[in-house]
Amino acid sequence: EIHELFHHGEYDRIMCSTEGPMGLAAIYLKNAYSVPAYFYMHTDWLTFAKKVLLLDRGNLNRSRRLLRTFYKAFDGLFVLNTDQQKWLISKEMGFSEKDVHLTAHWADNYFQPRKNSKKALMGITNDDPILLYAGRISKEKGVLELPEIIEQVQIEFDNVNVVIVGTGPAEKELKKALPDAIFMGWIKQDHLPEIFSAADLLILPSKFDTFCCTAIEAMSCGLPVVAYNVKGPKDIIENGKNGFLCNSRNEISDKIVAYLENPDKKKHFKSEALKRAKFYKPEFIMSQLLQDIDLKA
Predict the structure, then answer these.
(1) Half-sphere exposure of 36 toward its Cβ, with a 13 Å CA cutoff?
(2) Residue 119: which of 161, 79, 81, 152 has the closest Cα?
(3) Which residues contact 282 (CB under 8 A, 6 or more apart)?
């Protein structure tokens, strides 16, 4: 079916973004029609294999060689962070710098600051701070680190409120660990700006994101972000300016407390978050991508 669609559409470029069957279909079409094919990397499979699948060194090396063979079949690669870019052009992967392109995502236009009431949205007193998590509620997203982080913050701020947006397999476990948190479930995308605008700080405890769309969406609404200093977030967040990049749970807790203690810092961070979000605009990102695949002079 893919072959038929490609043939009748008379396409002359291929952009693939999954390493499975669709990846093999892309390689087949590239060779069948002698057209350039590009791969758009979303997942850091080696980190996932090491941290989640717990593969040993030998199997990690086999996985790396398999990925290298697969990616070599394409004419160019697109990555979402500088760590992946450096890894691909390193000696262990061996790609040419000219064939590895840095790209990004952006937030839809409706992600803008909104005037609203914490009381109306969540039943929270407008003067009480809100720490927000938004995303899939699963272990690989680091959500089970939230209870310990929040516990440390509440030692200094017993009026802090925790709001969780999203659903996922770890939801029941997280609700048990955070019985006083407000779980809002799944929220429509175009309603998220109201939640982001009402919150004081977004917490992102994931260590596996190759980018971080939620960070861009939040910052577009003037919401600063605290995250781990890992690939993805560290290319977006300017530490100590529009958010925080941390190396441990304790550091996350400490940065949150310091942030909540300083009203002037909160105001400044919100302003800087809006400025940073403006760097991620579709016009620039797509213009560069088209140029990288030789569709624009």
Answers:
(1) 10
(2) 161
(3) 106
Compute CA distances 5 → 13, 31, 253, whole Å: 13, 16, 52
Residue 257: partners with Cβ closer than 8 Å, 6 or more residues away: 152, 153, 156, 157
Which residues have a Cβ under 8 Å from the Cβ of 17 and sit 6 or more positions away?
A: 39, 40, 41, 42
Average of per-residue pLDDT across 66-85 = 96
Helix (H, G, I), strand (E, B) or coil at 229: coil
3-state secondary structure of 51: helix
Q: What is the mean pLDDT of residues 78-99?
A: 95
Whether the Cβ atoms of residue 182 and residue 113 lie closer than 8 Å to each other: no
- Mean pLDDT value across the chain: 94
Within 10 Å of residue 195's Cβ, how many Cβ atoms? 23
**What's the whole-model pTM score?**
0.89
Report which residue type is found at 97: E
Q: What is each CA distance from 18 to 25, 41, 49, 185, in whole angstroms?
A: 10, 7, 16, 28
Our separate counts of H helices and E strands in the chain read 14, 10
Asked if pLDDT for residue 209 goes beyond 90, the answer is no
Structure tokens at 289: 């991508």
Which residues, 6+ apart, have CB-to-CB distance to 295 below 8 Å? 13
Closest to 107 in 3D by CA, of 192, 207, 225:
192
